[in-house]
Design a protein that fits this description.
- This protein is α/β, with parallel strands linked by helices.
- The protein has one domain: Rossmann fold.
- 35% of the residues lie in helices and 16% in strands.
- It is built from eleven helices and eight strands.
- An eight-stranded mixed beta sheet has the order 1-2-4-3-5-6-7-8, sandwiched between helices.
- α8 links the parallel β6 and β7.
- α4 packs across α5.
- It is globular and about 50 Å long.
- It starts with a helix and ends in a 7-residue tail after the last helix.
- This is Alpha/beta hydrolase.
- Keywords: Hydrolase, Signal.
- Pfam families: BD-FAE.
- GO terms for molecular function: hydrolase activity.
């Protein structure tokens, strides 16, 4: 992005991603208003609630997208990601953003059970909301990408709510996700439990090729999640004959790849364009 305009936009990016204010709050403040429902229960527990975003009323047969946010399984809230729900809805998606239980109140696999319940809510309500019944997608960033990948690859989690990943999901989009991260860092050991269960906490352990289509988006300059996670998972899926695509963005870090979903920072990386193209939504290149 050459010239003065490019420098100004990069300056905006720096302020939004590195300011003392919450970057998410700034992006949310600039997002279009597309929320259609707030704090909708998908279960009985306090954090089992979701926010819903609707596309313009003239949108025909939109996909249903469940977006799972990151935060290292210890922090995060659906309110922080209004800019994601609004951006996807503005481009023609129905979007549910659920909260899920976090450590230290809960550990593996509680957050997967919550995400499966939220996905079941979307599955049950997609037709009533006007979504195309055959286009239910999971999408997640960072820890949320892990959650989405686990639901897609290890059939027990969606199986517990009466769903089958390859039958009921049209696709899964993982953004900067950890999929193969053993040995665990010390801060993650209490979340994922004793050593004897760790293999079953890794998405790559379940990459047998029977998954729904997956798109793995990854910044090459990510210093939070090693880009090798996406390469190794994609390689294992491909080796087993499963459907997977990857996109690697040079110079893009862990926050920027998600921030680029917003209209304000869309110039940073084609995260939104590539996600929409994978879901076959509208004119994804614009």
């Amino acid at each position: 992005m050459p010239g003065a305009m490019g420098r100004r936009m990069l300056g905006v990016a720096g302020l939004l991603l590195a300011s003392g204010c919450s970057p998410a709050s700034l992006l949310n403040g600039l997002a279009p208003e597309r929320m259609a429902g707030e704090a909708i229960p998908y279960g009985d527990l306090p954090r089992q609630k979701l926010d819903l975003y609707q596309p313009p009323p003239e949108t025909a047969s939109p996909p249903m997208v469940v977006f799972l946010y990151g935060g290292g399984w210890t922090e995060g809230s659906r309110a922080m990601y209004r800019f994601v729900g609004a951006a996807l809805a503005e481009r023609g998606c129905i979007v549910a953003i659920p909260d899920y239980r976090l450590y230290p109140d809960a550990a593996f696999p509680a957050f997967l059970r919550d995400c499966a319940l939220a996905t079941r809510w979307a599955f049950d309500n997609r037709a009533m909301l006007g979504a195309d019944p055959g286009r239910l997608f999971l999408m997640g960033h960072s820890a949320g990408a892990y959650n989405a990948a686990m639901l897609a690859l290890d059939g027990q989690w969606l199986g517990a709510v009466g769903m089958r990943p390859a039958r009921d999901l049209a696709g899964v989009i993982g953004i900067a996700g950890p999929y193969d991260f053993l040995p665990l860092r010390a801060d993650l050991r209490p979340i994922f439990g004793p050593a004897e269960q760790l293999a079953r906490t890794q998405p790559i352990s379940f990459a047998d090729g029977a998954n729904p289509p997956m798109l793995l988006l990854q910044g090459e300059a990510d210093e939070t999640v090693d880009p090798g996670n996406a390469r190794r998972l994609a390689g294992r899926i491909q080796a087993n004959g499963g459907p997977v695509e990857t996109r690697f963005y040079p110079g893009i870090g862990h926050a920027a790849i998600a921030g680029a979903l917003s209209g304000t920072l869309r110039f940073l990386a084609p995260t939104l364009r590539d996600a929409l193209a994978f879901m076959r939504v509208g004119e994804a290149g614009t």
